[in-house]
Design brief:
Layout (H helix, E strand, L loop, with lengths): L7 H9 L5 H22 L4 H26 L16 H31 L3 H24 L7 H4 L1 H4 L4 H6 L1
Amino acid sequence: MAIAQSSPKEEQHQQCHGGRGGWVFQAIAMLVATAVTTQAAYRARREPWDLAFVLFSYADLGLLFLCLSVYERLPPPPLEEVQEGDSGDDGAAVRWRLKMVVWALSTALSVAFAWRVAAVMPAPAMKAALWGMTSTVAVAGFYLLFVYRPVTISSSEMDTCKHKQSSPKLDQMV
């Protein structure tokens, strides 16, 4: 009988990123979303646009959860900054595509909710403010996911999850 053993690097990754229990939260969240969607779809069954909105929101949220769960299971990217095309790492291409899909799904969900809320807004200025905020969120999300490059952190700074460096004063308070 073979026993699967994980490497120390995988164990550290699981400790720092929540281990294997994340599926429970995702399952509960999807069950709640399914129950709420079923109730909303039943109430909207005679209004085609309302029903389409409910079903689109549910499908978009489900796909968003799925993509985020796949993204979280990918191995972490290397610490060194590598020029595009030089790494030969298929994981980088998959991470980039998943980030693009996550951005598109979250933007579509934001736009759908803004569209529904704008339909009931009384003043044109309020509608403009709503669409301005939605556009700002979409553009800022794109910038943070694809344009912004944070400063590279050294491997000694990355070990803070493993060594739990905190101040003695904070330990006394806790």
